[in-house]
User: Fold this.
Amino acid sequence: MPRSFSGLVDDLTSALAKPLPAEVAHGLMAPRPRRQWPEGWSPAQARPAAGLLLVFPLEGHAHIVLTLRADTLDRHRGQISLPGGVIEPGEAYEHAALREAHEEIAVAASEVRILGALTPIDIPVSGFRLHPIVGVSDTRPAFTPADGEVARILDVALDDLMAPGAVVSTSRERDGHLVVAPAFRVAGVEIWGATAMVLAEFLVVLGWTGARSGSD
Assistant:
């Protein structure tokens, strides 16, 4: 029997209270070779950032919201990401994720119930350590993209992310070298890199096996 939305929320709440799959899950969607911190750079220097992985029901199915970053941004322009950004001094990860989601897609903090956090992930290309915060809304919020930051808002069904053939292998050039990057091909876009790695852990805690099929 398909899992109800309330059942999925209960499963998530329970799973997030247990040890997480972390690097094992991240590795399912990590580009190969994986980018490393520059020589002489310590991971302790990473700037903390937070992203909100918001789950909500839509037409009877669980969805998450992702954003297509505007081409005018300095970092990660044109890529798919969680709504999120830099954590301010003294700010809690959960508060930062909610604040950034409000700024980027107009989600009110009162609409979101925080369930827990996924494993932080380092993003050497931009010098951040991303703290993914999982939240749930009982209905789909009325998203509005922030001008100059968000080019498009994506409602992505969890069923589509877990479907056979959703994960494809793509090739990309990085610093003059070829990189093989697994990606989720859903909703007319390709989700790869750190966002795909965060989603991999999220899906694994829900029972996804990470099986790959399809190719670019």
Remarks:
- The chain has a mean pLDDT of 90.
- The first helix runs from residue 5 to 16.
- Residues 5-32+46-205 form a domain with the Nucleoside Triphosphate Pyrophosphohydrolase fold (CATH 3.90.79.10).
